[in-house]
Design brief:
Aspartate Aminotransferase, domain 2; 14 strands; globular; Aspartate Aminotransferase, domain 1; 3-stranded antiparallel sheet; 15% strand; 2 domains
Length: 373
């Protein structure tokens, strides 16, 4: 068996395939003398809206900024409560706290690993204003139920789609279900910049106009400020890079889907919980995680065989020390806590091959002969 290292992710390898186009785009921006909020940002916004079939996109300097921009555009702030899953990246929580609202933890579903809408019913109070639905690891399962729940309870719906580029439910793309949605273009994402980046999407023109104002210090005209805002602007170079990568994204996503089938068949044969899939959803497979109570031993075995892995995420939100004070003392998220203990993320990206996955599954099969999974 080869001892070549299989990396968890290899961004530089992805960029090699489009290197000439990236360099050309860099030179064009460099020579233009326009580096912030120019024609390339506008072009990328148009292209991204077309890609996910949503009328409006507002490009930002990060996914976290996009989340905050969405909350601010919806006028969510002090005194408001926001329902949020107990298993997510901390940026989801920090955005809520940063605008002055209170996050209310809801445990996740044991199959989809997304917010469990049935458990949200007991969390709604007179202060509840919105729900943030996180498409964890790129899985949109449950978003239709979340949307219906919000309609029934008069709540706003915010999609945290940071990991879910081109994910779909019933043929509709993630980013089209909520009042607003936030995407991240952090370099390791399926659609990654060569630096920071993000965007907000919406189907509502008034929210779009509000978001554009907030993004640029509340200003349409330089030094004329209509409302309070801040600087969430995307730069021209990242927009140019993202425009190039967006053209490849569907092909890259299809490759992830094909690789996922290798893993799915293998782990189903062991009865090991793996990403939930169904006929009506398209999982973007930003992360491919399994659940195993032998996680640390299995991870060490894979590392000893030159296979890199990750954990997304090793601590449930309820136990994040800097944010504990914002949660109710009665917050209970047992499923999220189990996931934190048992998640193991395996290599799967557009840069991996079926041979890579065959080697990974063979190493896991070897481990299972001595340590039943």
């Amino acid at each position: 068996m080869s001892d070549r290292t299989i990396p968890f992710l290899n961004i530089s390898s992805q960029n090699k395939g489009i290197r000439d186009r990236l360099l050309q785009a860099f030179e064009e921006v460099l020579d233009s003398g326009v580096y912030i909020s120019g024609s390339r940002v506008a072009k990328f916004e148009e292209s991204f809206s077309n890609a996910i079939q949503v009328p409006y996109t507002v490009a930002c300097n990060s996914g976290t900024s996009a989340l905050m921009l969405g909350l601010q555009s919806l006028d969510i702030g002090s005194g408001d409560e926001v329902l949020v899953p107990g298993m997510t990246f901390i940026a989801t929580i920090e955005a809520i706290v940063a605008v002055g609202a209170t996050p209310v933890l809801v445990d996740v579903d044991s199959r989809s690993w997304n917010l469990n809408v049935d458990l949200a019913r007991d969390k709604v109070t007179s202060k509840t204003k919105a729900m943030v639905f996180v498409h964890l690891h790129g899985n949109p399962a449950g978003v239709l139920e979340a949307k219906q729940f919000c309609v029934e309870n008069g709540l706003l719906l915010i999609e945290d789609a940071a990991q879910a580029h081109l994910a779909e439910v019933n043929g509709s793309f993630v980013g089209s279900f909520g009042d607003v949605a936030a995407f991240s273009f952090y370099p390791g994402k399926n659609l990654g910049a060569l630096g920071e980046g993000g965007c907000l999407t919406t189907s509502t023109s008034s929210l779009y106009e509000e978001a554009k104002l907030i993004r640029n210090w509340g200003s349409k005209q330089k030094y004329v400020h209509e409302i309070r805002g801040t600087n969430y602007r995307m730069d021209e170079i990242q927009a140019a890079f993202l425009e190039i990568k967006l053209r490849e994204l569907d092909k890259w996503t299809q490759h992830r889907e094909e690789l996922s089938k290798i893993y799915n068949d293998f782990f189903d044969s062991f009865g090991i919980p793996r990403p939930f899939t169904s006929a009506n959803i398209r999982h973007s497979f930003h992360i491919y995680s399994i659940l195993t109570n032998d996680r640390d031993d299995l991870r060490n075995h894979l590392a000893n065989n030159s296979i890199e892995t990750g954990i997304h995420y090793p601590t449930a939100i309820a136990h994040m020390e800097p944010w504990k004070k914002y949660f109710s003392q009665t917050a209970s998220t047992p499923v999220s806590e189990r996931l934190a203990r048992e998640f193991l993320s395996l290599p799967l990206s557009d840069q991996h091959s079926s041979e890579d996955l065959d080697r990974i599954t063979e190493v896991i099969r070897e481990y299972s002969t001595l340590n039943p999974l």
